[in-house]
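Extended Data, record Endonuclease/exonuclease/phosphatase family protein
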Amino acid sequence: MRLTNLLFTTLLLFVSVFARSQKSNEFTVLQWNVWQEGTMVPGGYDAIVNEIVRLKPDFVTFSEVRNYNKTNFTARVCASLKEKGLSYYSFYSYDTGLLSKHPITDSLTVFPEKDDHGSIYRLTSSVNGHKVAVYTSHLDYLDCAYYNARGYDGSTWKEIPLPASVEEILKVNVASQRDDAIRLFITQAEKDLAAGYKVIIGGDFNEPSHRDWIEKNKDMYDHNGFVVPWTVTTLLEEAGFVDSYRKIYPNPLTHPGFTYPSDNPAKTPEKITWAPKADERDRIDFIFYKGEGLDARKAVIFGPKGSIVRAQRVQETSKDKFLLPLDVWPTDHKGLLVTFICK
């Protein structure tokens, strides 16, 4: 009996130590387009702070940060979090922003914002001895080719004839600088990987994934019969980066993972959609990753279940897992929260 009890106690101890070890090797990344710092929604800024207090992510990759009110948004968020008992570090940037629970060891401007053609910034840190490089991005929103596929001009949001071919759709990508920005990211990321870092990039790419506009759904969501090899995600995948959400949920029919445009109870639908006659449900907010021993363990869509379709509120019926907001939703996007493990 004593031997049995000893074995049982030893097993419990092993399980406890293993669980703690697994937990210490986990960290979370929140990608969040905050729609001009939440200024478009009454109480939006406070909602951003309150949600970070609730979720306590290790890293936050912000998109659509503009340093309104002549302030450094990420520094202001850190100050607000400190008032609530949480310590975060920030990297100043424009158009995008970065928060880290862990001290920042280095920061870098990879693709500076200029004339609304997007931006990419990077910080490095250490999570329980693991070197991590985290990038944030908000890519060109002036030339959005996925609107063209729906009969909308991607620059002015005016109605246009439907394109005749995929090639015609992708001509808009030539005008944007999304591919240029991602190529610069890949070049820098390879240096980080060679130096032993695990690399993560979060962002609003303003472009869907090539894994989402496929043969099986070409007649859904106003895809209008198009199967489109969207270029940003293709470039990342060819460079060995993994789409965290599609890694966990590979089927875009059961788990479309739409992040834009999000329903927002605080605003009327005509205020939160650029193309009121288009069904523009898409996944344009992403977290990609690469690095030895790094893997995505869990992913949830952060925000309301509803979307805006042709200026109407629609409740999604997909199998996507949602983390619903506390109260006020500060943006027209849904976010993405991913748990990583360093094996």
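Summary. The chain has eight helices and 15 strands.
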